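Structure (tokenized):
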């Protein structure tokens, strides 16, 4: 059965190839345009910000990816983000990240906390940016994010060449100040060049951003225990009744 830690057979792609399939027909384009005119698409239209950073596979921290989060805020303590591999029109949807404030995080069970990562270092190091948004404008949201935690599930491991979402989902971690959580310099340089920014310069402007008095020892689990998490999909007997109301 599928596992996060195992490639699902020979990967069917080499390089950054698109998913398999025929080009869209003119008829399909017309159907899509018509649907866009007639349907509200309300959840999608609530995405209000674009964040760009990097993520590391919990089960294999030698693998890092650039991520583009398109987020909507449901309330002051909760954001939900669709995560893509770029900001291009043909970007691949890699997964989803949920972001909660430190206040909400502290109320989670300890076992649940192990699946979450902190954002303080990511923000204050300059790795997390709001592309094309002036730093002064982005600062209030950066201050919110510095005191937040995220749970990011990757369902499409496109970096290993998968042209389709294959295998089990993978839990992702955020970059940190210690190895093996250090962000790869080549990835950072490539991102910075694209948006004409200098991540290092943000360290000074973000020096005074408040952060949690203490990062939870249950978050960023690998830092304390040198272990990550992988998902193994196994056969199981189906429950005939729900275990909850």
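Design, position by position:
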């Amino acid at each position: 059965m599928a596992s996060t830690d195992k490639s699902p057979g020979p990967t069917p792609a080499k390089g950054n190839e698109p998913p398999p399939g025929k080009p869209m027909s003119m008829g399909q384009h017309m159907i899509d345009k018509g649907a866009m005119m007639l349907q509200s698409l309300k959840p999608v239209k609530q995405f209000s910000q674009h964040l760009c950073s990097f993520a590391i596979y919990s089960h294999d921290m030698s693998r890092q990816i650039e991520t583009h989060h398109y987020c909507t805020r449901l309330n002051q303590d909760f954001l939900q983000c669709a995560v893509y591999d770029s900001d291009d029109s043909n970007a691949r949807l890699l997964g989803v990240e949920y972001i909660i404030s430190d206040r909400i995080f502290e109320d989670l069970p300890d076992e649940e906390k192990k699946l979450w990562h902190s954002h303080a270092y990511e923000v204050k190091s300059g790795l997390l940016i709001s592309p094309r948004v002036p730093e002064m404008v982005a600062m209030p949201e950066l201050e919110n994010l510095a005191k937040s935690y995220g749970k990011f599930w990757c369902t499409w491991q496109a970096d290993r060449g998968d042209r389709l979402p294959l295998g089990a989902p993978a839990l992702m971690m955020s970059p940190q100040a210690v190895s093996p959580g250090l962000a790869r310099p080549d990835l950072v340089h490539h991102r910075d060049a694209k948006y004409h920014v200098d991540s290092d310069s943000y360290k000074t402007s973000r020096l005074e951003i408040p952060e949690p008095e203490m990062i939870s020892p249950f978050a960023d689990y690998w830092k304390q225990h040198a272990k990550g998490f992988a998902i193994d999909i196994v056969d199981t007997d189906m429950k005939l009744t729900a275990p909850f109301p």
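Reviewer-requested clarification: The longest helix spans residues 26-38. The CA atoms of residues 119 and 145 lie 6 Å apart.
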